[in-house]
């Protein structure tokens, strides 16, 4: 009798969408799979800003523990939530083809506040990366903390006297919740690995590693690895405004990365394109370039501010 693969997931609608995607892909390969719901620390505390509660792995720790305790066989995550260093005995089994990468502005009435230079608009986001980039462009605006899953954040936006909130396009579009009053922020550089989904399993689980292998999308894996190498080399997480995006066109990998101060007014950017076969170390190289040009001082100031 074939082993039934237990897929661990958080309980949010988006997490369930991601886990069901993996389940359906495995089923199409002839495997039997079921979902196992696990509550994460990040789902329990919906008030404290992420950067105040040590966000590295906050959405993945409970699933990692369930994996190592053999309660589940595979854990499915948004790759941007996964620490750049996986826990011992856990490996990446697959990175699925990437979805929408950009951020969206969801607004309540209209977007006139973007043109009013002396107006203090109220924008909601819990991301320091989004906050820094927004304040660089609109320094007169006020940022409000917004936590919870996609549904909760949309509800809170409707209830609070705010003008707009910032969301990942992938999160809204995958579960068909993108409001009509929304616009893509094509000028905002995304978080490393935003829009990508990963499945991890125990290192010694040959069965699950082989089952997940056909789900792996090499182009997405390379691009997100370059972005995450950039993040890791800068010693950053969601507590540091770090942005990165890589894509492949005409067999060349195009990369842009940024390190910013908390208020967005000081920032360093690195951009380069290289042949795909020469891209393996690009994220690390670009981060080292930023550190050499003064990025180490920005990182030190952020750590001191905490």
Automatic annotation (TrEMBL):
GO biological process: heme biosynthetic process
PROSITE patterns the record matches: PORPHOBILINOGEN_DEAM
GO molecular function, a single term: hydroxymethylbilane synthase activity
UniProt entry keywords in alphabetical sequence: Porphyrin biosynthesis, Transferase
Quaternary data: Monomer.
Domain of life of the organism encoding this protein: Bacteria
Family per similarity comment: Belongs to the HMBS family.
GO CC terms: cytoplasm
Biological function: Tetrapolymerization of the monopyrrole PBG into the hydroxymethylbilane pre-uroporphyrinogen in several discrete steps.
Domain called Porphobilinogen deaminase C-terminal: residue spans: 222-291
Positions of the Porphobilinogen deaminase N-terminal domain: 5-208
Catalytic activity: 4 porphobilinogen + H2O = hydroxymethylbilane + 4 NH4(+)
Name of this protein: Hydroxymethylbilane synthase
Cofactor annotation: dipyrromethane
Pfam family, one: Porphobil_deamC
Pathway: Porphyrin-containing compound metabolism; protoporphyrin-IX biosynthesis; coproporphyrinogen-III from 5-aminolevulinate: step 2/4
EC numbers on record: 2.5.1.61
